Amino acid sequence: MAEQTIPLMENLVSLCKRRGFIFPSSEIYGGFGGFWDYGPLGVALKRNVENLWWNFMVERRDNVVGLDSSIICHPRVWKASGHVDHFSDLMIDCKGCKRRFRDDQVEAGKCPFCGSLELTEPRQFNLMMQTYIGPVFDEEHRAYLRAETCQPIFVDFDSIRISSRQKLPFGIAQIGKAFRNEINPRNFTFRSREFSQMEMEFFVHPSEDMQWFEYWKSERTRYYRDALKFDMDKLRIHDHGPDELAHYAKCALDFQFEFPFGWQELEGVHHRGDYDLRQHSEYSEKDLVYFDDQTRERFYPVVIETSVGLDRTILALLCAAYDEDEAETKKEDKEVDRRVVMRFPAAVAPIQCGLLPLSKKLEEPAQAALQPLRERFRCDFDVTGSIGKRYRRQDEIGTPFCLTFDFDSLEDHSVTIRHRDTMEQERIPLDQIENELAARLAAF
Ligand code: GAP
Asked: How far is the CA of 267 from the centre of ligand 1 (A)?
């Protein structure tokens, strides 16, 4: 396996660009710090991860429903949530190199970039991104791009509860974009200014809060182990100490992943108390209190939140998948030929099966025989280059299986299936290939 070092990051960033997973936004203009574009393979990977999360969190449960809210909502939402007044980092400016950085990056009173001792006092810098709605650009028309996807869930709590006839305990989930004016976007997509979150807010009776906190901790562990097939040695849980907790939170934990640049937060599971519903009730003057018709009790539900970055999940999958090993062919001078292979689990692999006619002359019969597989699996039909090169191309993008249609296929109605990880090959009759592929992908 490849060593998890910073060079791995360089190789990975270069592979992502070369193969069209992820590249800088507005690259022909020199890029735009903290903004990234997902190319054809990146968008496929992203969709697959979103679908897995949605299936695990929403579709398999009767007590979690979905939402797709607007990105810009009433500015008072962000006043109520505390973001307008408190969502900030302490920043320092260097009078020497004119750079701005976070207070916690300064050691011994020195600028981390040029070493100058001429620094300003720390000042609060709000991370909310702003815009103006309507033709006048003044304070009254100012609005914010959402900094987290969960606030509209709290704002819509009553409409969703009533329209979906949910009773406690139940959850509302949303996947979508969030925006933060991060001062130092870094580590590829890890800290971006525009990113996607997958959040679920679970509303419970206050007396059942800890049992649901433990439930979601264990469900999210199960998701990483069984759905994303993470190596559990690369995942750990960090419980927040009292100094890390938000003032309204009873407890919180992070799922951390071991990235090549160290252990870092992937997801947060937070006990948010009843803070959000109370705040929005006060600011909107619409009471979001819950009435239990069995016990006749009125109360604000407590919220257990699971919040994960989609881009961070993808970065973790990319880091975990990247590998270099010895290929099946060796050069004539006996030098070991290394291949780059992305060992994605089949559920998220952008392409699940490469369809490869051995020769251009076989393109038509191969299409006729293999095209039906596209109705069920994510396939890539590739006719260009030697078969060895085509296997390499598929290995590099993490395709679990390739099917080769050769001249014998015309006679024996069979194809060769090649396994990405073992590079083993076997012959399978065409009339069994769909079931075989389905079984092998499910077990992958
Ligand atoms: N609603 C709670 C919330 O937003 P958070 O810890 O600020 O909590 C949740 O963010 C998750 O969103 C993080 O665990 C991380 O995966 C992702 N995230 C946060 N800021 C990010 C950024 N600048 N770039 C990429 N992902 C980010």
From this structure: 7
> Is residue 307 in contact with ligand 1, taking CB distance under 6 Å?
yes
152-178 per-position pLDDT tens digit: 999 999 999 999 999 999 999 999 999
Round the CA-based radius of gyration of the chain to a whole number and report it.
26
What are the domain boundaries of the chain?
9-73+145-319, 351-443
User: Rounded to whole angstroms, how far apart are CA atoms 348 and 280?
Assistant: 38
- Taking CB atoms within 8 Å and a gap of at least 24, the contacts of 293-300 are 299/205, 299/206, 299/274, 300/274
Predicted TM-score (pTM) of the model is 0.93
Pocket test residue of 261, 265, 317 for ligand 1, highest count of atoms within 8 A of CB: 265
Six-digit token string for 186: 């870094």
User: Does residue 276 have its Cβ closer than 6 Å to ligand 1?
Assistant: no
CATH fold for domain 351-443: Rossmann fold (3.40.50)
CATH architecture of 9-73+145-319: 2-Layer Sandwich (3.30)
Residue-wise pLDDT tens digits, 381-398: 999 999 999 999 999 999
Distance from C-alpha of 389 to C-alpha of 405, rounded to nearest angstrom: 16
> For ligand 1, is residue 182 a contact (CB within 6 Å)?
yes
